[in-house]
Structures are given as C-alpha cells and as structure tokens.
C-alpha cells in the first residue's frame, strides 16, 4: 500500500505537458500589449498597396502588436504586387489577419490570393471571394503562355493553402475556373477560418488562437484590445491617387494641353509649368500600370491634330480626327481586360469636351483675328475722320487719330475742313470731304 501511495504522488506526464502548455499560453497572453493595428485596403491592388502592407507589418512588429488586421475590399490588381504582398505576409513575425470587410465587400482575384496567405482569414457576412483567374497585364498571352502562368499561380497558391491548412482544391478551382464563394460557404468549405459581424466580434473570436509566424508560435490576446490605425501619409495618399488609370489619363492629356497652350502663347509660363508637372506625374503613374504605347501615341497624335486645326483651315476634319484619336487612345491606354484597370468612358468624354472646347475657342479667336479690321499703320486709319492742317492741292497734311499724315484728294480741300480717310497707299492716305 505504501508503494502504491508513493506511486500515486507522482504527477502524470500528460498532466505536466498540459500544465506547461497552459503556462506558456498564459505567459504569452500576459506579455501581449492588448493592441492590434488596423489597415484598410479599399481598391485595386498595386505598388502603393505593397508599401502600405509592408509598413503595416513593420509597425506592428515594432510596436509589439497582437496582430495586424487588414480590412480588405478589392476587385483585384496587379500580379507582381500581389506576390510581393503574399511574400511579406508569409514572412511576417506578427500575425496577419485578413478580414474581408465591410458587408458587401469582396476579395476578388488578387484579393483571394492575399486572403489565403493570411495567418487568419475572416469574412464579414454578405461578402464574397474568388474569381482568381490569371488576367493578362500587357500584351495578349497565347494559350501556351496562359497555361504556363496559370499553372505557376496554382502551384504557388496550393503551396500557400497547404501551409495555412486551407482548402487546396478550392483555390485551384478559383484560379482555373474563376469560381467564387460566399462568406458562410467559405467557412464550411475551409476556405476561411471564420465569419465575424464586425471588428470587435472578430477580435473576440480570434482571441486565444495560436498561430505560427516566421519566428515561432504566437497566442493571440485580442479580446477588448486597443485598436490603432495604420494611417496613410500624404505622399502615400497622393501616389495612390495618381496611379489610378483615370487620373493617369487625365494627367497625360491635360498636361499635353498645357504644353500646347504654352507653345501657342509663348511666355504664358503657367500652362507650361503645370503641363510639364502633369506629364512627369503621368509617366510616373505609367510605370505602375500595364500601358499600351499605341494608346499613348494616339493621345499625342490627337493633340497634334487639334493644334493643326488652329493653323490650317480644314473645315473641322482635323477636329474630328483629333476626337477619334483621343477616344481610341483613352480606350487603348491601359493594356488589360480587367475593368478596374480601364479608363472610364465618363473620364474620356470629359477630356474630349475640354479639348474640343479649348481648341474650338482657339480656332474661333484665330478666325476672328484674321477677319478683324487692321488697327495699326495707315491701313488702320481707313474710315476715320480727320482735320486738314495744310491745304490739300493735290496733297497736304491731315491730323488723324492724333497724328499728322500726308494726304491726297481728288479736289482741293481748305485748311481746317473735316475729311474722311477712304484709302491708304504706303505712308500716304487718300481723303475726301466729310459732310456731317
């Protein structure tokens, strides 16, 4: 019995392991600062998005945040930027939670890739994700190249899904067949981890979860956590705006218009300066977008045609050509079938109206100037009334418009009589008596 009693005093090995694990989790929770970082990504994925997410991860690590929560709502984006974001998330030393939010939001195309790479993937009710087929960014891909790019995307995302323990078959279908899934279906199909009503609900549901980051395991302490936002700097907001395809088209078109105005009216300075700045910003934007240079050349050609309309009387033919060229250039500028990367028809129409209005005014001004009566030199005196200062017989002097002119008449005209200028010949004018 003594031996049995001594034996029962020895703790069970399983209990020790469980106890140690609980202590480790409690310690991890105690060490947490009870703070999470929030980063909103709303719009197409691009180079600026990469900068924002990398900054969010870096700040979260530096401030010992419990997690970086990315509030995602995107139609998709650039492939290169998407892979950079996935790499940043996979190598983060802080848990990254991608939350498709708010209700009605979507994580389409690139958004599905990013959601799959998160340590925890969550969706708000009435949201969706998927349609992750490869979209050509640049020249059209032939069937062989399309298969190659698609297979590469599938291989990468299946590997990511395996690492995160998510449905590998579904992400392959999303890429190959462009399937989509709703939030509640996504949980049932092991596509995402959970559905949360709002951010506070999300924090409560992920509290206590253990996730593996690049440096090891991390237990989340997020219930009631302090929420701080990763804010965009002025430069990030500005760059995000100008890399929008619509803004890029506006900058290039109106920048060209400014330079033309400077050439047409040398010394104006302001149109040239503003136009130059717009062109430089447009080319910066073009570096981040799949540009079709044929579209770029068509826009330049339209500016040339509008400029020629001022110089050459074409009875509107050059203007029509300029409008057609400008519209085609706007449509072809972005070489991608993705709708979120296309220039809006409304923006194209607005630019056409501005161009037609400006050059229409310029043409009208030029025509009016050509038909306007000459107001300088002897020719400008025709029709004016003057006074004879020296008898005209057949020549004499006449004071017209405050100046003395040598005058000729068909009949003698005495001094101080009023005369009317009827014509000019070089520096001499011809007059006749003027009866009031």
List keywords for this structure.
436 residues; alpha/beta; 2-enoyl-CoA Hydratase, Chain A, domain 1; OB fold (Dihydrolipoamide Acetyltransferase, E2P); 3 domains; six-stranded parallel beta sheet
What does this structure look like?
The protein is an alpha/beta fold and 436 residues long. The protein has three domains: 29-231, Alpha-Beta Complex (2-enoyl-CoA Hydratase, Chain A, domain 1), CATH 3.90.226.10; 243-371, no CATH class; 378-433, OB fold (Dihydrolipoamide Acetyltransferase, E2P) (Beta Barrel). The chain has helices at residues 2-8, 13-31, 47-62, 79-90, 110-117, 143-164, 168-176, 183-188, 199-206, 234-242, 245-264, 270-286, 293-311, 317-332, 345-371, and strands at 35-42, 67-73, 96-100, 106-108, 120-123, 128-130, 180-182, 194-195, 210-213, 216-219, 226-229, 385-390, 395-400, 403-408, 418-425, 428-433. A six-stranded parallel sheet has the order 8-5-3-2-1-11, sandwiched between helices. Helix 3 packs parallel to helix 4 (79-90) and helix 11 runs antiparallel to helix 12 (270-286). The model is unreliable at 1-33 (pLDDT under 50).
């Amino acid at each position: 019995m003594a031996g049995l009693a001594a034996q029962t005093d020895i703790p069970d090995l399983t209990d020790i392991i469980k106890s140690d694990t609980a202590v480790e989790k409690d310690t991890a929770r105690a060490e947490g600062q009870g703070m999470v970082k929030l980063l909103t990504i709303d719009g197409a994925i691009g180079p600026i998005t990469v900068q924002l997410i990398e900054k969010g991860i870096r700040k979260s690590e530096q401030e010992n945040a419990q997690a970086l929560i990315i509030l995602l709502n995107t139609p998709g984006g650039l492939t290169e930027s998407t892979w950079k974001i996935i790499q940043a998330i996979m190598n983060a030393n802080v848990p990254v939670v991608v939350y498709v939010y708010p209700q009605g939001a979507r994580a389409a195309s690139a958004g599905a890739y990013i959601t799959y790479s998160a340590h925890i993937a969550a969706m708000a009710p009435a949201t969706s994700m998927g349609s992750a087929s490869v979209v050509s960014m640049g020249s059209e891909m032939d069937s062989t190249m399309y298969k190659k790019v698609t297979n590469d995307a599938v291989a990468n995302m299946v590997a990511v899904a395996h690492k995160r323990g998510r449905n590998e078959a579904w992400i392959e279908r999303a890429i190959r067949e462009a399937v989509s899934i709703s939030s509640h279906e996504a949980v049932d199909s092991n596509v995402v981890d959970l559905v949360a009503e709002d951010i506070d609900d999300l924090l409560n549901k992920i509290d206590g979860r253990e996730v593996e980051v690049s440096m090891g395991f991390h237990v989340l302490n997020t219930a009631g956590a302090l929420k701080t936002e990763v804010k965009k700097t002025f430069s990030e907001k500005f760059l995000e705006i100008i890399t929008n395809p619509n803004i890029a088209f506006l900058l290039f078109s109106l920048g060209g218009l400014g330079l033309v105005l400077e050439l047409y009216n040398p010394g104006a300075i302001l149109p040239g300066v503003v136009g130059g700045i717009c062109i430089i910003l447009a080319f910066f934007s073009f570096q981040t977008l799949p540009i079709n240079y044929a579209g770029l050349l068509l826009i330049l050609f339209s500016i040339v045609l509008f400029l020629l309309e001022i110089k050459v009387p074409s009875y509107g033919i050059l203007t029509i050509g300029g409008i057609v060229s400008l519209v085609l250039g706007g449509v072809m500028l972005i070489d991608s079938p993705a709708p979120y990367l296309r220039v809006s028809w409304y923006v194209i129409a607005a630019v056409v109206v501005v161009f037609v209005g400006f050059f229409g005014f310029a043409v009208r001004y030029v025509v009016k100037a050509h038909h306007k009566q000459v107001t300088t030199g002897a020719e400008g005196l025709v029709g004016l009334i003057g006074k004879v200062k020296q008898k005209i017989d057949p020549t004499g002097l006449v004071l017209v418009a405050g100046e003395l002119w040598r005058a000729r008449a068909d009949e003698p005209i005495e001094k101080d009589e009023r005369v009317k200028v009827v014509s000019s010949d070089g520096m001499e004018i011809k007059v006749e008596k003027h009866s009031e």
